[in-house]
């Protein structure tokens, strides 16, 4: 299973957001991070993959044209997670996942929902109210809503924004684990370049709606690229555990 | 390990089913409470006819005098039932509005649907259409209905403008309320004494306009629309978790909104067209229901309808008891009772579950 993106364009009226994004086939079992400065079109690309934006170009999953799939079928195979669950919802954790499954019309909702919670190790929260959870716990519940539907592709829009360090790693760790165990493809917009470098198999760097670089973190993260895309003077160093670290020294004028 | 996991799953399933049961029971309890209130409402009135006599009269009409028959069939029953149906319609419309506009302040009253209906009705009263085949009172209802629908369409168009956020929609609703009220005042200023009285009475919102035709029509609208509301409820619950989330889970939110909008216009416009402006039931009803049964719209919609019916039934009862010998228009009562409740809700966003 792989996802291939060819000449993908998105425009809001006359304003072109994505200028023909083309990527090599993204294979199952990998975590792809979309990175780049604000306004680069990362979220728009993700939304286009999810079918939430009108787009041109081709999008193939296993060679099959995704845009030709029906609304419900596409949603079943490519699952999208928006930034945060809205606050103030009077719903229980398990209830919210069952509610999300019910629309898809699958059977045995309850056991699917519970299994998703168990996979993420948060089955203890099942009876809690969404409102009583921390931001990180809520994000794990949102992820459980996705996993319960057994999708092939996970599309995650800034899954770790506004989370503390513990939950940043827990959420990304849970995604990684699912990706490897179930041979899924995860595409995530990540703001934190160091988190992206340590978690992703492949980085896609976007700027002004175009792909600037694409490849393994070690190949992509170079001082020249960081200067060009982010406008910063930075060093890329390997820490004692072998992971890459981007150390930013100053903003370039 | 697997046995433990299965135990956990079974326990969670048990908790979940208990939650559903509790919510179902709460809805049933509301229905029971409504029945009691309606009986109380039926039993009170200026004529002092007792509940026993009234029930006897309903089931054995031959034992009644002519006056008693008029009191039962033309006054008490239509008033009491109208309160139930209008309350249910407004509150259900409010619940759907709050869901599709993602706005806790949305209701037919706060976003100007009631005011628009009042403007339409006032226009029809002050300047009759001159359509021979439609009775003047029906013309008022039709105009109120048309204006109410128009306002909902305007609201929907506003909410879909790019960059129109939560606040701007509420502000637009408030602007609608003010402009319609200003135009109604203008009509009142220009009206003759005779017309003026009708205009003022219409804007007050009163159950005194109840009759069996209107009751039948409103009951029909509710009976037809409620099943559609319930069918849309699972998708609506998902919509409450965010527009993008719902869409990415395969919900066609455009179609969902459009269908819901149609229901909202029919429900609120029919209710307002028949009894005039009745405030706060459509706003507060869904909030009270949400505190009771939570956000699952499969329970929230029926619970909202029941709470709305209960509120208006109680208001109807209060409207007879407030001033001895005078039936205060029920719109005044709901506003007086609703405002404090509304303020409390705004300042103390309750948590439930």
TrEMBL record, chain A:
Any Pfam family: ABC_tran
SMART domains according to UniProt: AAA
Origin: domain of life: Bacteria
Keyword field: ATP-binding, Nucleotide-binding
Keyword set includes rRNA processing: no
Record GO terms (molecular function): ATP binding
Keyword match Kinase: no
InterPro entries attached to this UniProt entry: AAA+_ATPase, ABC_transporter-like_ATP-bd, ABC_transporter-like_CS, P-loop_NTPase
Residue ranges of domain ABC transporter in the record: 3-233
PANTHER family: ABC TRANSPORTER ATP-BINDING PROTEIN, HEMIN IMPORT ATP-BINDING PROTEIN HMUV
Protein name per Swiss-Prot or TrEMBL: ABC transporter ATP-binding protein
Native species: Pseudomonas capeferrum
């Amino acid at each position: 299973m792989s996802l291939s993106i060819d000449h993908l364009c998105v425009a809001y009226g006359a304003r072109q957001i994505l200028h023909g994004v083309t990527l090599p086939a993204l294979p199952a079992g990998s975590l792809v991070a979309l990175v780049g400065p604000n306004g680069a079109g990362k979220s728009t690309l993700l939304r286009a993959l999810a079918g939430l934006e009108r787009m041109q170009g081709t999008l193939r999953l296993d060679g099959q044209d995704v845009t030709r799939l029906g609304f419900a079928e596409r949603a079943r195979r490519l699952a999208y997670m928006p930034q945060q669950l809205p606050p103030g919802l009077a719903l229980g954790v398990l209830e919210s996942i069952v509610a999300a499954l019910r629309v898809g019309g699958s059977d045995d909702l309850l056991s699917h929902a519970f299994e998703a919670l168990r996979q993420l190790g948060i089955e203890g929260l099942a009876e809690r109210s969404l409102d009583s959870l921390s931001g990180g716990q809520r994000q794990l519940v949102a992820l459980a809503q996705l996993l319960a539907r057994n999708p092939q592709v996970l599309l995650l829009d800034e899954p770790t924004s506004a989370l503390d360090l513990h939950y940043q790693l827990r959420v990304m760790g849970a995604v990684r684990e699912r990706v490897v165990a179930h041979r899924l493809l995860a595409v995530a917009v990540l703001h934190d370049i160091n988190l992206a470098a340590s978690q992703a198999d492949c980085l896609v760097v976007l700027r002004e709606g175009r792909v600037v670089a694409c490849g393994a973190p070690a190949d992509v993260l170079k001082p020249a690229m960081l200067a060009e895309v982010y406008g910063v003077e930075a060093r890329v160093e390997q820490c004692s555990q072998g992971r890459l670290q981007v150390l930013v020294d100053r903003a370039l004028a | 390990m697997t046995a433990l996991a299965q135990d956990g799953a079974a326990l969670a399933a048990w908790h979940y089913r208990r939650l559903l049961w509790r919510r179902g029971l709460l809805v049933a309890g509301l229905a029971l409470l409504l029945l009691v209130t309606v009986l109380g409402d039926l039993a009170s009135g200026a004529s002092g006819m007792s509940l026993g006599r009234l029930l006897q009269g309903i089931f054995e009409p031959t034992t009644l005098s002519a006056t008693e028959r008029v009191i039962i069939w033309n006054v008490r029953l239509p008033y009491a039932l109208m309160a139930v149906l209008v309350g249910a319609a407004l509150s259900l419309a409010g619940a759907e509005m709050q869901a599709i506009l993602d706005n806790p302040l949305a209701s037919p009253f706060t976003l100007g649907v009631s005011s628009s209906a009042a403007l339409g009705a006032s226009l029809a009263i002050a300047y009759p259409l001159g359509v021979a085949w439609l009775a003047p009172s029906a013309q008022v209802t039709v105009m109120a209905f048309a204006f109410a629908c128009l306002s909902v369409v305007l609201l929907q168009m506003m909410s879909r403008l790019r960059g129109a956020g939560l606040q701007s929609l509420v502000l637009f609703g408030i602007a609608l309320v003010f402009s319609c009220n200003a135009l109604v005042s203008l009509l009142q200023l220009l009206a003759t004494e005779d017309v003026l009285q009708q205009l003022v009475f219409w804007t007050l919102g009163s159950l005194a306009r109840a009759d069996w035709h209107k009751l039948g029509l409103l009951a029909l609208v509710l009976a037809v629309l409620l099943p559609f509301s319930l069918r849309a409820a699972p998708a609506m619950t998902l919509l409450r978790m965010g527009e993008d989330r719902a869409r990415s889970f395969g919900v066609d939110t455009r179609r969902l909104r459009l269908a819901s909008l149609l229901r909202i216009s029919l429900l609120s416009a029919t209710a307002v067209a028949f009894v005039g402006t009745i405030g706060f039931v459509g706003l507060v009803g869904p909030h009270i229901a949400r505190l009771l049964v939570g956000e699952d719209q499969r329970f929230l919609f029926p619970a909202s309808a029941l709470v709305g019916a209960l509120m208006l039934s109680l208001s109807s009862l209060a409207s007879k008891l407030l001033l001895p010998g005078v039936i205060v228009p029920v719109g005044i009562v709901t506003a007086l009772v609703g405002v404090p409740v509304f303020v409390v809700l705004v300042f103390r966003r309750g948590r439930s579950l």
